[in-house]
Structures are given as C-alpha cells and as structure tokens.
Amino acid sequence: MSDTGHHAMWEKLNMDLEAHDGLLEVLGKFYGDIFLSQENRLTGAEYLDFVLSEVHGLRIRELQDAKAQGRKVIGSFCVFVPEEITLAADAIHVGLCAGAEAGSDLAEQLVPRNTCALIKSFIGFKMAKLCPYIESSDMIVGETTCDGKKKAYEAFNEIAPTYVMEVPQTKSTAARDLWKAEVVRYMKAVEGMTGCTITAEKLKEGILIANGKRRALQRLTALRAASPAPISGRDALLVNQISFYDDPVRFTAKINELCDELEERIAAGGGVAPADTPRLLLSGCPMAVPNWKLPYVVESSGAVIVGEESCIGTRNSRDLVDESGETLEAMIDAIADRYMKIDCACFTPNDERLGNIADLAKMLKADGVIHYSLLFCQPYTHEALKVDKALQAAGIPMLSIETDYSMEDVEQLKTRVEAFVETLA
Amino acid sequence: MILGLDIGSRSIELVALIGGEVVVSRKLPTTFSPLDQCSRLLDGLRPASLVGTGYGRNLIQRLALDCEYSTITEIKAHALGAAHLFPEAGTVLDIGGQDTKAMSLANGRVLKFEMNDRCAAGTGKFLEYTAGVFQIPVEEFGPYALKGENPPEISSICTVFAETEATSLMARGESPEAIALGLHKAIVKRTANMLRRVGLKFPMVFTGGVANNPCVLRLLAQAVNGEIGRDILIPDNPDHMGALGAALHRHNGNAVRGA
Q: Do A415 and B76 touch (CB under 8 A)?
C-alpha cells in the first residue's frame, strides 16, 4: 500500500519492518479486491484511494513533520474524546489502529481470549509494533465505555501510557456533571502536555473545524437517501474511516467536493446500483480500517448499503457542538452537552438509539437493517435484541450478525446475508 | 426440464421438474470432488434451466453447462420446497449436514430465519460425529438412542466437547443407549430454542437429512409440544427439499439472475 521510501521513518518509530511490510501487502491486495474493483466509482474516490494508500506513509510523515515543529499528536480509540480541545491546543487528533487481526495472538497475553476483536487488535498492533499512529502519539487517550475496554486500558497502560477519560454510564444530571468535569480535566491535561493555553478564541476555532467535518459527513449521509444509491456503502464507510486519520480541514474540503459530485450524479439519475437494488442500513459496532468484511459480503450479495449507524458513521457525525457560546465556560458546556448525546450502547438505558435507528432507516429509505455486533461485545449484542424488537414494531426487517475480524465465517455470512436480501426482494 | 441442485456439505441432491412434476430425484455424497459428483448426478439429463442452492451453490458456475443457470440460498430453497408440499406451513426446520436453519413463513415467503453459528453444534455433523463414539452408522443412531432411558444431561453443545462428555459418561458406567439419547436431547434443545426465536407456528415442516432420525423427531415433538403428522410434517424425501425448492424457484417464473 505504500512505497518503500518510508522505511527509514518506520524504523525510527521502532516498528517491526518485516511484519509491517507483510501487513501492507495483504492490505493492498484486500483494498484492490474490495474497493478498486467497484464499478461507477466517483472521481472523488481518488482522494480516498490516495489517503488509504498513504495512511501509514505520507500521513505519518506529516505527523512527524508537525512534531518536528513542536506540535503534539493525540491518539484515541473512541468518539468520546473531544477533538475540539485537541485542535484548540494546536495538536493533531488521530484514531489508532484497531481493525485487523494483526498481533491478536500476542494480545491474548494481556487480555482474556474472549475479548472483542477491536480491543485485541489495538493491543496486538502495539505489541507487534505495527501501528505508526500509536508510535507517533505523544498522548494516548482511552475511555471507560465498555468493561472490555476499561480493563484493557489497565493492561495497555503497562506497554503504552494511557490517559483514561471517565465516560458516565447514564444520562442523568450527575452523569453530565461528571462528564463536564472530565472534559475540563482532559483540557488541562492537553494544555499541560502541549504547553499551550486554550483560549476561548482557540476553542471556538476547534469547534468550528470539528463541526465542519461533521457537516460534510452529514451532507454525505443526506445524499445517500437518493435512489438509485449514488455511492457504495464501502466507499462511504471509507470516508468515515478516513475522517479519523486525515487532516480535518483537508478532509472537509475533499468530502464536500465529493458531495458536489454526488449531487451532479443524483441530478443525472446516476448511481452505483440499479434503483430496485435492496437498500440496507448497517447498525451496531464500529468498523475500523481495514474491517471491510461485512460491507463487502453485503454488497456482493445483491444489496447496497445506504448508511452506517455506528461510531464510524452517523454516531460520530449526527450531533454538532452548539457554536453560539462566546466564553470558554459556555463552550465547554456546549462540548459536554454534545458528547452526552452520543447513543453508545455503554449507556443504560439507551433507548434513544432505537428511535435513531428507525428514523435513519426511514430517512435513507432502507429496506432493511443489518445489525452488526463484534463477538464478545456485550453492549451491542444485548442491544441487537432490543433493536430487533423496535424495528419489528416499525415494520423494518432486521438481520442480526455477530462476527469478528477472521475470514473463517465468510461463507456462512454470505448465506445469511443473501437469504436476508432474498426476503426483501 | 428444470433442475434443482442442492450442493450441501455432506450430500448433493438433484430434482428434475417437467411441467412442475418431479420426474427425477437423485442423491450422492459430496466427497472431496463435488464437481465430479454434480456431473454424475447430471448424467443423461438435458435441462433448459438449472438452479443451484446449498453452501456449494456457486460451484455450478464451474460446471460446463449449456443451459441457463442461477442460484438461490438454501434458506429460500427449503422454504419454497416445504411450502409447495404443505401450503399451510408456518415454520420450516431444516437440519442438514453442517447447518441448522429455522424459518418462519407467511404465504410461502420467508419472514424471519435463524442459522447456527460458524461451528457444527446441533447439526447432522454432530450426530454423525457422536455416532462414531458408539461405533454405529449415523442412520442407526436414532433407533439406537430410542432404546435409552433416563438420559444424562449433556451440557456441551460443542461437537468435540460433547464427544468428550459422552466418553466420560461411559467411563462412569452410564448405559450407551441412555448417553445416545442424551446427545439427541442436547441437539433438540438447541433446535427448539432456535424455533422459538423465529416465532414457531404450526404446522412446522421438518426437512433435511436429520428429519429421517426418529429419535430427533420424537424429542422435537415433545419439546415444542406438537403432534407428528398434524403439527410437525415430514415430506417423503426430506433431504430433497432444497433441490425441489430450487427447481420450483425457476418453475414459478423467476427471472434468471447471476447467470
């Protein structure tokens, strides 16, 4: 996926060059099969291809150059870590690698075997020295979402110092107060680490940049309501995945360009699949790069994906931070409020998610929903049952899938997904 | 002539229709050369159309066919076959070689379905594997288990662990027939749960090779509180339901897709 010109940089980052080359080779082939083989792709997809091809290359070089100029890099695993604050301190906010089976066997030395693939993956990437983002990070931020992650960060902290934010488990007033205190604590920690004082002016800028990114993603979501579907689910997922890696201002500009192209295509009645193709909404656990297994299976089974109700999807882009605050205090309140709207399955109760899924399915004119849970992910496997009931009441068919990053169940998944699509046709 | 070809993990079935009537039914074990077995099944037939189903359905692309062809999933195929023979069917249960599937039907269409996970727990493979412990062929395993009384609880649903459990029960002096009955109970318990999840409605049609096992049938009737012949219906050739449904799909005038 990347040329060998980056080897010296990777070596400096103390990565395992041989294993990393192997990973990039597999990924490159995978990417070709899943993405480059698609028909009717947008011209704007060139940007996606380029970012992905250089995700461990040029982008890491940019991070190294920024670091050489004194800027700091903050790596996180979750949409609860407020990017606005990172940006206000002139630091760079990136997502860390967690979407491949790399190093999972090593990870089992630190976490139990029955741990979800995402957790095993980020630990595995670190232990196997395969993630240049972790190695470039000046601060790694974890969060107390599910039990799996909470305990995993304790273990992870021993190999990579991890700052942990306490995400509350309910949406009570007390929980909101706790979360606001956590936002302030994070701000202080970022100020301490970067040596930068966050002013109202800087925080405002951070809010506008993060909101700009969300607005571009919202625009993309809305355009996908068109029939025929103007963009494949795979490319749209890629857009969401890249939103965690690329420079936010560049990303926003590029995605808005892509949306301009989509508008033209929609006006001309064009699409990636015929108008009678069954339209599916994916809902559930996040799909981190390069976890493209299920979208590929779905779109090879005669259906098209029109939305992703997940952290690498609408859960990350649906809500904006209120931009009217002028004081630091008002902006911190606005940030705290915005993040408390996230309908993550770690909350109890989390009933708003049920309505959000049904609303999104209707808005996108989805014929059905595929609920995706990672094996051993308690919060989302529990909610799969609730979502099924709620969607049944709303008259929307749902298929529940539980899987992980391995390829051993691809044939079984194909049968399930094809059979589900047959019931919709 | 329209052919339905159900390429399963254990066996391949073929059904030929002319004017909607079954004129040929054939079956062979899958073996390690399913393509050769398919060719053997097709020998002497000159179909106008072929519909593949089963987990090996996409293999038909590699058969040198000079007719149109398409595929449907085994879920849809079993539902079509069962609903054709029993139009009043509310539920279909198919226990095959490596999958167990439960489907709820409305007017012959699949409303909801469940399948076992990636492993072979609770499938025909489970029975075949555990029958091996008793050194009897799988066809005789059901009648053998029916002779058992007071079955011990087999707690494992994993095929490999269930074998271990059966072996240690034998070492404890449990009668082999009772252990065999316990193993059948374990698979039925799992199946009944799957049926409840799709919303079991009688009459239920039981298809797939395991429908020939009298012990599974009797235990299942008890577990779901249904009467065999009224609530639980077994086709004459339960293992040919997938192939029949596949052929019916084309016979019913569905366009050829994926050819």
A: no
Residues of chain B contacting A423 with CB distance shorter than 8 Å: 76, 109-111, 113
* Contact across the interface for B72 and A302, Cβ inside 8 Å: no
Beta bridge partners of B11: B29
The partner residues of A304 in beta bridges, in order of sequence, read: A279
Say if CB A409 and CB A403 are below 8 A apart.
yes
Distance (Å, rounded) from C-alpha A278 to C-alpha A228?
10
Contact (Cβ atoms closer than 8 angstroms) between residue B140 and residue B213: no
Nearest to B28 by CA among B48, B8, B51, B53: B8
Is the pLDDT at B258 greater than 80? The verdict is no
What pLDDT is recorded for position A4?
Answer: 61
pLDDT digits over B67-85, tens only? 999 999 999 999 999 999 9
Read off the DSSP letter of residue B234: -
pLDDT (tens digit per residue) in A226-248: 999 999 999 999 999 999 999 99
Q: Are A72 and A138 in contact (CB under 8 A)?
A: yes
What length does chain A have? 425
Identity of residue B172: R
CATH of B1-86+240-259, one of 3.90.1200.10, 3.40.50.300, 3.30.420.40, 3.40.50.10300: 3.30.420.40
- The model carries a pTM of 0.94
* Alpha helices by DSSP H, A268-351: 293-299, 314-317, 328-340
Output DSSP code: residue B155.
-
- Are residues B40 and B27 in contact, defined by beta-carbon separation less than 8 angstroms? no
Q: From the options 1.10.1370.40, 3.40.47.10, 3.30.420.40, 3.40.50.970, give the CATH code of B88-234.
A: 3.30.420.40
Query: In angstroms, rounded to a whole number, what is the distance separating the alpha carbons of residues A11 and A54?
Result: 17
- In degrees, to the nearest 5, what angle opens at C-alpha B185 toward C-alphas B181 and B188? 140
CA angle in degrees (0–180, nearest 5) for A4-A5-A6: 90
> Which residues does chain A have within 8 Å of residue B115's beta carbon, measured at their own beta carbons?
412, 415-416
Phi, psi of A133 (to 5 degrees): -70, -45
- pLDDT value for A3: 56
**Predicted confidence (pLDDT) per residue in A192-231, tens digit:** 999 999 999 999 999 999 999 999 999 999 999 999 999 9
**Is the pLDDT higher at B66 or at B41?**
B41
What is the rounded distance in angstroms from the CA atom of residue B16 to the CA atom of residue B46? Answer: 10
- As a whole number of angstroms, the distance between CA A41 and CA A14 comes to 37
A273 to chain B nearest CA, in Å? 15
Domain A199-343+350-425, second-level architecture: 3-Layer(aba) Sandwich (3.40)
Q: What is the pLDDT of residues B42-57, one digit of tens each?
A: 999 999 999 999 999 9
Task: Quote the pLDDT of residue B259.
Answer: 39
Record the tokens describing residue B245, joined without a space: 């449904």
Edge-to-edge order in the sheet of strand A92-95: A92-95, A73-76, A139-143, A162-165
ipTM: 0.89
Rounded to whole angstroms, how far apart are CA atoms B175 and B57? 42
Could you say which residues from 263 to 322 on chain A have a Cβ atom under 8 Å away from some Cβ of chain B? 302
